[in-house]
Design a protein that fits this description.
Layout: H1 20-25, E1 34-39, E2 42-47, E3 65-66, E4 72-73, H2 75-88, H3 92-95, H4 98-119
Antiparallel strand pairs: 1-2, 3-4
Amino acid sequence: MKGLSTLRKIDAVGRIVIPIELRKLLDIGKEDEVEVLLEDDHIEIKKYKESNECLITGEITPQNRRYANNLVLSPLGAKILFNEIKINKKPLNRKFKGFLGRTIFYAVYFLTSFVQKTLS
């Protein structure tokens, strides 16, 4: 969504007010949670949606696990990602950049032991 712009000051404790027009447009209510993400050279704010959907397969199962930076993988998604990493044997931090790259890079660290346990 482009075209909406407004200038806001940050208060003494680092808060900003999201304009009512934007809150209505994005259906952000009084007690809703928002995510604050650092993306390269800007900050992204979006309404938080709890999701247990696998990033790789899109599956929603009770076995899905949440890793670093809220990366969610199903057992099948974990196997696919693990095998892809094993086949390519390339450092992920060079292949991916930004938030997604860091997410995948840190998730692989936790993913390896999970997949090995699942495969046994």
